[in-house]
Amino acid sequence: MQEREYKFELLKGDKVLWSVILLISFFSVFPVYSASSNLEYIVNSGTTTSHLIKHTFFVVLGLAIMRFVGVFKYEHIGKLSSILLAFMIVLLGLTMVSGQTIDGASASRWLKIPGTPISFQPSSFAYLMLVIYLCRYLTKKIKRERLPIENIFYIFGPVLLVFILVAKDNGSTALMILMVSLIVMFIGQLNKKYILGFVGISSVFIGIFMFLALKTDLIGNNRVHTWMSRIETFTKKESQVEDEVDKAKNYQVMQAKAAIVHGGIAGMGPGKSALKQMLPQSASDFIFAIIVEEYGFIGAMVLIALYLIMIIRIVMIASKMPAFFGSLLVLSLGTMIFVQLSVNIAVAVNLIPVTGQPLPLISYGGTSMLVTYIQLGIILNVSSRIQVYDEEGMGKKQSIEEINDIA
């Protein structure tokens, strides 16, 4: 009986969510192992076995970190978010100066830890810390009328600063930061006039950034021309793609669509993708196309169903959580996962222009995977506290004093 209780405690938090995470994590090993042959033969990086070991290591490490996050009170994580966000902003600045490229990527998004072979993307951690920071700040000041200067300095300032530092090398993530921040402000009950003000200010900043990047040399080595090219390629109809330059720009999308069509209903079988060698970033950004090719429409629908269960459980946790900060935090982190998931699949099926967003818990790459596990760890942390709050007699609605004390 004692051993049984220990196992139950090992998976602390929502058991359905835990089950879905474990299933997706276990499944991720197979498509990554198959698609990583692209890294070996095309990018000339490592071997399929070394990539399998590396991916498995990050899965195990991610699950361990996810469980470790449950040891701390999520309120304490919120209180540390401003310090951690400031630290990440410094790292983003360093990345702009001395960023690296790895595994065939074309953008300098990685920062190497001195004295080690380890590289990571500060933008992913900065994005996470920014969302947690916004949740805490909005909770602490939920009913007090803030001065406009407070919103500009404490809300708009950090968001726009992170956007500017990330946008140069990672435009899709920068736009997602703005979009998710806007959603957090909305569900965090920020006054609508400030939300509209944020939209206006963001539009101005995006306009200025685009102008400086396209018309001047003030923002060197930026990728704005790449973004414009991708948008132009996306908006062209297939009948208009005639010359070799256009075909080269459209190459990734054409190969992804071919892989999806090749998979059919039942798929070619695990490891039997015929297009993984021809599809750039097949182990990361376009891994969904390889999954459809190998596991078919049926396998893709099962995977999407698991993701939907994950999102539904996240919404249920948020709805059951009596503490406003906990509820807002869960919804915000769930939004981050949902947006990333939607963007990756939308790119694979050619619904939106090509971006560099990985498939949560599956795509090859350590930083994004670990950040997703941290997000889910915080969500599970919050879910484990629901019963505690119920036992303490906390009602479904809190007073302003209770809200401020929780945050």
Description:
By secondary structure, the chain is mostly helical. Helices cover 70% and strands 1% of the residues. The protein has helices at 2-10, 15-35, 37-41, 48-69, 74-98, 122-140, 148-167, 171-187, 192-215, 224-235, 244-249, 251-263, 287-320, 324-348, 366-391, 400-406, and strands at 111-112, 119-120. Strands 1-2 form a two-stranded antiparallel ribbon. Helix 6 (122-140) packs parallel to helix 15. The longest helix is centred in the last third of the chain and has 34 residues, at 287-320.
Please name the defining characteristics of this protein.
single chain, 407 residues, mainly alpha, two-stranded antiparallel ribbon, 16 helices, disordered N terminus, disordered C terminus
Ends: how far apart? 37 Å
- Class based on secondary structure composition and strand pairing: mainly alpha
Order of helices and strands: HHHHHEEHHHHHHHHHHH
The share of residues in extended strands comes to under 5%
Major beta sheet, specifics?
A: 2 strands, antiparallel
Topology:
Blueprint: H1 2-10, H2 15-35, H3 37-41, H4 48-69, H5 74-98, E1 111-112, E2 119-120, H6 122-140, H7 148-167, H8 171-187, H9 192-215, H10 224-235, H11 244-249, H12 251-263, H13 287-320, H14 324-348, H15 366-391, H16 400-406
Antiparallel strand pairs: 1-2
Helix pairs in contact: 2-4, 2-13, 4-15, 5-6, 5-7, 6-7, 6-8, 6-14, 6-15, 7-8, 7-9, 8-9, 8-14, 12-13, 13-14, 13-15, 14-15
